[in-house]
Amino acid sequence: MDAMNATNDKNDVEGMDEENIWDADTAQRYDTPGSGMFAPEVLGPTVERLAQLAEGGAALEFAVGTGRVAVPLAERGVPVTGIELSQPMVERLRTKADEATVPVVVGDMTTATAPGTYSLVYLVYNTISNLLSQSAQVDCFRNAARHLGPGGRFVIELWVPELRKLPPGQAATVWACEPGYIGLDTYDVLNQLVVSHHFRFDGTRNAELARSPHRYVWPAELDLMARLAGFELEARHADWAGSPFTADSRSHVSVYRLPPTR
To answer: pLDDT tens for residues 72-103?
Structure first.
């Protein structure tokens, strides 16, 4: 990628406003019951592992969205509170659970404060990459630490950047190609930014495009952010079921923990 393309891609990412990305239309289409990230084989292990990590305490979900994880986790008996920037996403959540069941603070997960102290804060499905600067991602770790009691855990689910698939001079990779859908990422490797493009189409000549910007993070960089906020890495697996994390893993679930005394 040449310097001009890198500059253009960075401007393209910075021009995507979070409120416009997570608007009412997106919130309406976000839930896909029984499939995708809502498939039982995806959601079940996530909820099971988070319930174990909460160890009977309360949990706080950063970017709670429409309650994909928070609602079933609350049904498991774990008290769950959420922080969410998008009001339309919260309104969608309210069709599933009321304020008493899953309280939500509307605000930015880097600065918003939820009442109380928690044993678990979690951030799932690559959402920390929605923060488009390293400083914002560090602030997210610090905000998690502020909400946790001694020995509390911060759990992050995140994809591993697939730069090995990006030959020199090529700016994009296709990561999904299936009937009615193509997913590709365009990279700005200079600034560690990526835009995910989602093309959906049917039998007509028309296609629908949705895009989302991200700042990708290597596991080692994530670990350093954690240490800056007072955490230590407790465990890292390739998925919620506990598969070993290897050099070929496409994602990871990392568990960070505060010292038992602070």
So the answer is: 999 999 999 999 999 999 999 999 999 999 99
Q: What is the CATH number of domain 31-161+218-257?
A: 3.40.50.150
Q: Can you tell me the distance from the alpha carbon of 261 to that of 251, in angstroms, rounded to the nearest whole number?
A: 31
Contact (Cβ atoms closer than 8 angstroms) between residue 88 and residue 115? no
Give 128-158 pLDDT, tens digit per residue: 999 999 999 999 999 999 999 999 999 999 9
Q: Which of 152, 119, 137, 162 is nearest to 222 (CA)?
A: 137
Q: Are 251 and 157 in contact (CB under 8 A)?
A: yes
The residues with which 122 forms a beta bridge, in sequence order, are 61, 155
Domain residue spans of the chain: 31-161+218-257, 163-213
Q: Which amino acid is at 25?
A: D
